[in-house]
Specification:
The complex is a heterodimer of chains A (264) and B (331). By secondary structure, chain A is mostly helical. Chain A has helices at 3-25, 36-52, 56-72, 77-102, 115-141, 144-150, 158-188, 195-226, 243-263. Chain A folds into 2 domains: 1-24 and 144-233, no CATH class; 27-142 and 240-263, no CATH class. Chain A is built from 9 helices and no strands. Chain A starts with a helix and ends with a helix. Chain B folds into 3 domains: 10-235, Arp2/3 complex 21 kDa subunit ARPC3 (Orthogonal Bundle); 244-289, no CATH class; 292-331. Chain B is elongated, with a radius of gyration of 24 Å. Classes of the chains: A mainly alpha (264), B mainly alpha (331).
Chain lengths: 264, 331
């Protein structure tokens, strides 16, 4: 596969992920009906609890909980496997497997693996899979704009929240622009390009994209000014807590407390 | 390069968030001052560009391909402070929505790539920018990505030293510094570093021909104040804990009666055994003054690395206060 196809595939995959997340967030699953602030707070706290645990079983229990929440939120296990587990397992597995043999400790039977090596590899893989599953639960059950607004619970300055929101929107636009640029270049390419020509093409594409971003930034600024923007940023905070949200908050708090207590 | 969740301990993650926060605060103040009402659209567009350029597959000599992070390029075009914010925003969005890098590790990833990366890129680019802008941009990108990788390797390598369970199994990244540094640096000094060099130098060469005005941002920024470099050095002080033993000649009276310390003194002194007891003068004078932060470990702090950091902050503050007093007296 040439670098053009690889880049196109990467860009396409990012756009597809964004589309899938939006589609999934619109369905009527369990987590989709809960206030975005509670989900951001609760799922972040669960990730921290998984990271803090000094025992394996509480992390495994959190992973099981994340899988149950995934099913209840109408996210297919296939999405979970293809979007999270395989990638995380391949990347972390490549790092964790040598630890089985390299970590000093007591050998397991006659195998060249130590007990400590197996434990540390287990910690690494379980933690990564659990955290990645909990993180995808947030973005697949909440519209991205709501996730960013909910960051205000962490006291993220309002200007950053506005910048995050605009960045997300323009990432999709620039992904589309870059995709079109590479697609049109591929359709005009006949024969094989030399290494130096391919480098030139990639670098020139990045340069053109930078130019377009700069021009777009000027256009967007003028459009904002013409609509009355004078530098003050306001974020519409339309979140309302219901009884269900309070119950979800209490459940998350209990789960986090139990996970921290069990993993201490 | 993007550290996922689970590789770093919560304490390390919290420290890296705390280390990044002042830089974000100062960068936001400076950028807001420079851009006024243009801040939101300009930062958003450049953060979006940083995100997309990270997905470009770059063909490299030898038939391989690599991804660039674009730290050098962002610094050259935007200047260090705006680049710090734009790349940080791209990293946060990657972690939150695209699963690239961990949510608990956002502080560490931003510190390594966006903050230190931008400062290093700027330090390399600025002196060379007037004469050889293309070479300067390439070297800035290369240096930035490699220093960022080195920081990530150090953070990984410190984990097994500090965090193990009762059986001795490492709780987070299991490899020591002797493994993490070569493992990270080999790939970054060659493939990733070269990708960063090609994209930074190539795009700057392209912009010099097509839109030279865009290159004014990085070269015209005000110099980075000394406090930024000082802050980075302060944060890195706990690395001193890794140095085993004490320096030659810096022995305490009690070291002469401790068998392990005696063996160390002998090993450091061409295997000449030290005297059986501490020299009388040393034993007498050693009790005259007891330092409040003896061996860089304040007695009221339990954490070794935090004590080290606190000692470094206290010492630096004292030195700065002394210098200010001398300057005032000489006026």
């Amino acid at each position: 596969m040439s670098f053009l196809e690889r880049t196109l595939e990467g860009l396409h995959e990012a756009m597809q992920r964004a589309f899938e997340a939006e589609h999934s967030a619109a369905s009527r699953g369990l987590l989709q009906q809960i206030d975005a602030r509670i989900k951001v707070l609760g799922l972040f706290a669960l990730i921290v609890a998984a990271t803090m645990s000094r025992r394996l079983w509480p992390i495994a229990a959190l992973l099981a909980l994340a899988i149950v929440l995934t099913a209840l939120s109408r996210i297919s296990i296939r999405t979970l496997v293809s979007r999270v587990w395989i990638g995380a397992l391949l990347f972390t597995g490549a790092i964790a497997v040598p630890a089985l043999f390299l970590t000093p400790g007591t050998a397991i039977g006659s195998l060249p693996i130590t007990r400590q090596g197996a434990t540390t590899a287990g910690f690494l893989i379980l933690r990564v899979e659990t955290a990645a599953t909990l993180a995808i639960l947030l973005v697949f059950t909440t519209p991205w704009a709501h996730v960013l607004k909910a960051l205000r619970v962490f006291r993220v300055p309002v200007v950053f929240v506005a910048v995050f929101g605009m960045t997300c929107r323009y990432i999709l636009l620039l992904l589309d622009t870059a995709h079109d640029m590479f697609e049109s270049r591929r359709s005009r390419t006949v024969g094989t390009l030399s290494g130096s020509e391919r480098r030139h093409m990639a670098v020139a594409s990045a340069g053109v994209l930078l130019n377009r971003s700069s021009q777009l930034s000027g256009d967007v600024y003028l459009a904002m000014q013409s609509r009355g923007f004078r530098g003050e940023v306001y974020v519409l905070d339309d979140f309302r807590m219901t009884l269900r949200d309070w119950a979800a908050l209490a459940t998350f708090a209990a789960l986090v407390a139990a996970a921290v207590w069990a993993g201490r | 390069m993007h550290i996922p969740d689970g590789y770093l301990s919560p304490a390390t993650c919290a420290t890296m968030y705390a280390a990044s926060a002042p830089f974000w605060y100062v960068a936001l103040r400076r950028v807001r001052k420079a851009l006024h009402t243009r801040l939101v659209p300009r930062l958003s567009l450049f953060a979006a560009f940083s995100f997309v350029v990270m997905m470009f597959n770059l063909p490299l000599p030898g038939g391989t391909t690599g991804h660039a992070v674009g730290i050098g390029l962002a610094t050259v075009v935007l200047g260090p402070w705006a680049a710090m914010l734009a790349v940080s925003i791209a990293i946060v969005i990657q972690a939150l929505f695209f699963g690239d890098g961990g949510i608990t590790a956002i502080g560490a990833n931003c510190f390594n790539m966006a903050i230190v990366g931008a400062l290093v890129a700027y330090a390399v680019y600025r002196p060379l920018a007037k004469r050889w802008p293309v070479v300067a941009a390439g070297l800035a990108g290369y240096a930035a990505i490699n220093i960022s990788a080195l920081l990530a390797a150090i953070e990984f390598g410190l984990q097994p030293l500090w965090y193990r369970d009762a059986s001795g199994a490492p709780l987070y990244c299991p490899y020591p510094l002797s493994v993490t540094i070569p493992a990270m640096m080999i790939g970054h000094l060659t493939i990733a570093g070269f990708a960063e060099l090609v994209i930074s130098a190539g795009v700057v060469a392209f912009l010099r021909r097509s839109d030279p005005a865009m290159l004014q941002g990085g070269a015209s920024s005000r110099p980075i104040p000394a406090w930024a470099a000082l802050a980075v050095l302060l944060i890195l002080t706990p690395l001193g804990i890794l140095a085993a033993g004490s320096a030659w000649g810096e022995w305490m009276a009690s070291d002469f009666s401790d068998p392990a310390a005696r063996a160390q003194i002998a090993a450091q002194s061409l295997h000449q055994p030290p005297p059986a007891h501490a020299p009388q003068g040393l034993a007498r004078l050693a009790t005259i003054w007891t330092a409040p932060f003896a061996r860089y470990a304040p007695p009221f702090i339990r954490g070794v690395s935090f004590g080290y950091l606190l000692s470094a902050m206290f010492g630096t503050g004292l030195v700065m206060l002394s210098c200010l007093t001398v300057v005032r007296l000489l006026r």
